[in-house]
Design goal:
single chain, about 280 residues, mainly alpha, MetI-like fold, two-stranded antiparallel sheet, 13 helices, 2 strands, about 70% helix, globular
């Protein structure tokens, strides 16, 4: 009887369907296409920028006027968001004990401005505070106060669109903060206001700072609600985004210069907050 030696069969190699990084090739290709959609327009902006004339363009009186107005209104809007947003974030973070419908309504009310088209926000503000608005009519009749198409209207429009950024940043910081320090302070006899002022706020200060920077950047870049509710009056309501939009029709180089300025601010914010976008992510 002849015994044939058995030969171990090696499994045939399958063609790899994975791209570098452990992704399947179709996923990697689609991810690359998505990244291109986000990055290539900004690359075009940088490549086509009139770098040789940039200083001259940014030194124009109309540009400086829009820049000063934008910085002033964005700063005022950020201050208002801090005053209104921190208590609202505390309320949102402590609403876990509320009945589900009330908790969901509160969160929806804070979230709506994030998903609402800014123009719709401007129309809503106009219907509220315009001369024939729900509140604006009474303000005009009783006190002679007109809100739309003023610098104050710019600030209100910026607060409307930027407030949720601050609220959610502070709420996230509150949820991740260790509450044992607050409980210890309360046990030692501190009042709720003292606990909030001397314990809670210092604990969430980094989150408040991050939210304030995001809020400032969003206010600085606000366009739709501002032009609808406040218009485009030079030196009064014509902010940088509005000036850039109008310049695109008459002087594209100035429009590109303004767009580059806003892009630089946005990139600066990203670099400043690179460790605060997601918990545990360091970059």
């Amino acid at each position: 009887m002849t015994v044939r030696p058995t030969v171990a069969r090696t499994p045939s190699r399958r063609r790899s369907t994975r791209a570098p990084g452990g992704l399947a090739w179709p996923v990697a290709v689609l991810a690359g296409a998505g990244l291109a959609v986000l990055v290539l327009p900004l690359v075009a902006l940088v490549v086509r920028a009139p770098w040789g004339e940039l200083g001259e363009l940014l030194a124009r009186e109309s540009v400086l006027e829009a820049l000063v107005l934008s910085l002033g209104t964005a700063t005022a809007a950020t201050g208002a968001c801090l005053v209104l947003g921190v208590p609202l974030a505390v309320l949102l973070a402590r609403a876990a004990a509320w009945p589900a419908p009330g908790r969901r309504l509160l969160r929806a009310a804070v979230t709506v401005p994030l998903v609402l088209p800014p123009v719709v926000g401007g129309i809503a503000l106009l219907l509220l505070l315009g001369r024939r608005g729900l509140i604006g009519g009474a303000l005009d009749e009783l006190f002679g106060i007109t809100v739309p198409f003023t610098t104050g209207a710019v600030v209100l429009a910026q607060v409307f669109v930027a407030l949720p950024f601050l609220v959610f940043a502070v709420e996230g910081a509150l949820r991740s903060a260790d509450r044992r320090t607050e409980l210890a302070a309360a046990t030692l006899g501190a009042s709720r206001w003292q606990v909030f002022r001397h314990v809670t706020l210092p604990l969430v200060a980094p989150g408040v700072a991050a939210g304030a920077v995001l809020c400032f950047t969003r206010a600085l870049g606000e366009f739709g609600a501002t032009i609808t509710f406040a218009g485009s009056l030079p030196g009064v309501t014509r902010t940088l985004p509005i000036a850039s939009y109008l310049a695109m029709q008459t002087d594209p180089d100035e429009a590109i210069a303004l767009a580059l300025l806003l892009l630089a601010v946005s990139v600066g914010v990203l670099l400043l907050l690179r460790d605060r976008w997601l918990p545990g992510v360091r970059g």
